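Quarterly update from the structural biology core.
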Amino acid sequence: MERTFCITLFSSWLLLAFIIQAQSRPLDVRSFGAKSDGVSDISPALTSAWKKACDSPTPSKIIVPKGTFGLGKVTLEGPCKAPIELQVQGTLKAPQNPSLIKVGEWVTILYLDHFTLSGGGTFDGQGAIAWTQNDCSKTSECNKLPNSFSFGFLNNSIIRDITSKDSKLYHMTVLGCNNLTFSHVTITAPEHSLNTDGIHVGRSNGVKILDSTIGTGDDCISLGDGAKQVSVTNVVCGPGHGISVGSLGKFKNEEPVVGFLVRNCTLINTLNGVRIKTWPASETGAVTDMHFDDIIMRNVSNPIVIDQEYCPFNHCTLGIPSRVKISKVSFNNIRGTSASAVAVKLVCSKSLPCDGVHIGDVDLKYIGKLGNITTNCVNVQPAFMGRQNPPICAQNRNAQSS
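Predicted structure, tokenized:
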């Protein structure tokens, strides 16, 4: 009887192990009909694999193997019963014609806990046609072109070891997320690709961007309203418009931006360095607890910027001050070369001057031929620590001493 009991127990264990193994076996999209011919749309296969993974009570992995696959507009949505990893090893190509994606994003990922996107693969947005349709320079509203990614309401999740190439508009947008990490991500698009921001974070808490390389036609990283406790570490940015907070104040009921740490980053051949920007004649808002530490600038125009008169293409009213309050900002150990004579621009609001601006060691050399390196400071009285080259806000200091 004891032998029979042991055999039964062992058989039950084998059955359980088989079930667990079957449930945890990776789901290859080819098993759901995906073809790696670079043309056929694999979104139905990916959606079917996603449904099976989402319904699984144990953690699942979906694999897009090496090869080139076409991918139409797709939404991968939870909540799911267990964590899911989407491992993209190959290249996924978006439709070249933006109208084939219609409204929204190319890839939308929503309402998940403990989600992972990985694999070393490439998402190719094929944005060249879309860039010719971008009319931001002519009107105050851009064409509604599709972003490559929308990450919405993800918790405790990670995006790692993937490449986003040639998005039609933004590469990645983040909204309503908590504790989301980007690690070893590569984002690339030509310098002339308008509004192809790398990673845009809004209304999210605890977003980390680590050990990544971003080069686009707009901001490498940008923060919108409601971004809180965002950190950027060991990121190389360029080409592009730099690392930016804003622009803010354009819309009513924008949430405060609180807690931004950028450290140990390198910016190369960018239009701006580290920047905070708000619209004049703006709605009310607040930006506080911003810190930029250990930044290398290489041939960067406008390396350090606070601009509360941000007015691209003159689509605004410059004579009315911004109503976004900026406070508790620090720039420390920022060094390298400036491609413009004005290396530091701190232009704050006349009605709400910047408070608590601290400037530590700064060493910037101008490599152009348009005179001597200078700084421009308006409606701000920074506190200084260490050494500054060039002397920052010299006119303010002279006014105080007289």
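The chain has a mean pLDDT of 91.
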